Amino acid sequence: MTRIIADISVSLDGFVTGPDPGPDNGLGTGGEALHTWAFSDAPEDRRFLREGTARSGAVILGRHLFDVVDGPKGWDDTSGYGAGEVAKPPFVVVTSVPPESVRTTNLDWTFVTTGLHDAVTAARERAEVASSESGKDLDVIIMGGGATIASALEAGLVDSLTLHLAPIVLGAGTPLFTGGTSRTLEQRSVISTSTATHLTYDVVPVIR
């Protein structure tokens, strides 16, 4: 069964970027430290990264994050989601207007202009096709940015939330949560390394 998993790195004070993020400074000032775990040689960090990539049948991201990863200082053949893997998942971007051009033409991009629900539907369909072809249960990963994940949680679209809690205090930046509906999460796993605490929660549906 295809699940919708929100997955993002966050500081101890709740920021997913440092101050002043932008296309040329995607993680903001000091924000690179959020992803130290992704480049760690620690076995648990490597396993978490490898297993997360392997289960990805499709990946959702917002337009701001797309502009960063597709920008001149963004992803290339040696960096980015699935770099070094045999195959990369398809990517679904939530946007009001598709970009005029795409630099990373080696990746499979779909641009959805009709909202987050439709983006999740499109990604789920891609993941289910990939699951059928591979014979494995693959999931949809919402990788960010923070506003996209927060909106998906608020809309009740997320089955599971994974936070990579970095041992840093950024002081300012892009917050993951800025309000919204109160929610209960069921803790499923906690994996601690020297670079992060990997927290996985099941999202309990809100009874309205």
The parts where pLDDT drops under 50 for at least 5 residues are none
Helix content: 10-25%
Tell me, rounded to a whole number, the average pLDDT. 91
Principal-axes geometry comes out as globular
Spatial strand sequence of the major β-sheet: 5-4-3-6-1-7-10-9
Report the count of strand segments: 10
- Rounded to the nearest angstrom, the distance between the terminal CA atoms is 25 Å
Largest sheet: 8 strands, mixed
The SSE order reads: EEHEHEEHEHEEEE
Going by helix content, strand content and strand pairing, the class is: alpha/beta
Q: Count the DSSP helices.
A: 4
Mind telling me the C-alpha Rg?
16 Å
What fraction of the residues are assigned to beta strands by DSSP?
Answer: 25-35%
How would you portray this structure in words?
- The model has no long low-confidence stretch (mean pLDDT 91).
- By secondary structure, this protein is α/β, with parallel strands linked by helices.
- Strand 9 and strand 10 form a beta hairpin.
